[in-house]
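User: Structure please.
Assistant: Input sequence and predicted structure:
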Amino acid sequence: MAARLRDVAERTGVSVKTVSNVVNGHRHVSDPTRQRVQAAIDEMGYRPNLSARGLRSGRSGVIALALPELDNPYFAELAGFVVQAADAHGLTVLVDQTDGLVERETLVMTGIRGPLIDGLILSPIATDAEQLAGSVGRVPIVLLGEKVSHGPVDHVAIDNVAAARLATEHLLDVGCTHVVAIGDLPHSPQGSGAAQLRRHGYEEALRRRGMAVDERFVMAVPSWRRQDGASAMAALLDAARRSDGVFCFNDTLALGVLRALAERGLRVPEDVAVIGIDDVEDGRFAVPSLSTVAPDKEQIARTAVQMLVDRMHVDQDAGPRDVTAGFRLVRRESTDRFWRLRARRAGTKVGLR
């Protein structure tokens, strides 16, 4: 027989109401009690009866996660963390793909799922702040990413300017003298979001070192996929522009860059150092392994889910909140040996010709 709330309460010596508060993510439970109850829930295999709970509370126990691309490694890994965070609150996650289209983003915001969901976590690509203000539906919404910040709903993102600056500064710190940026999106809806901010961080890093920004070293791409990174790197090599460092606006672009360099017989990091942003799992197993700036995806997911839970139960009328998640530099083979190799080759010109 499936465990019931009452069974968990008897096992832990607390009231049924306290167990319910833990299951529903209410904050009015002490940490020791919450941990004890959660341990019993896990041990006994208790799962909430969503149908019964919905009838009693008017809620379904389901939240939606809407992402631009489910085959993008960053979004796939982020979705996994959202599911884990939601499960800790007894919530089920319904995942949707918007393809970065404003009409699909509008549909998920205005409640296309109707009574199926209690809240929405959305990573918008095409929707701007004005459209968002006119599209907010009946359920709480938390935004991820950079397209809309300081808007009418809660928002979680990293500081993309600082992340890009850190990546670029790392290339300069290991000895690169000519750093290319790959990932500008001037003709895409994404251009006003992460791409623009990461370009700004790249340029800021150069200026802080007294270096000029050369527009020929900022490579535009149609999207942030592996093929786009490979094509941009090939175009750079065909143009014979000297570079000994490549900053990619995300890791999937960087993986394409690694492939293009290998096909041209160039070694990483002996000839050129490469770094990305996102810390996707593929980068850890690339040859060479990819240096990156790693957003705290687990923190992003946990914060977004907690914001939804707060809105559903406690803070419905509070003003919108903006949370900046952390990130860190991860040094791997694609940059970490560059300075040592450069030192050994002192007096030898390093870079692409």
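The longest strand covers residues 62-67.
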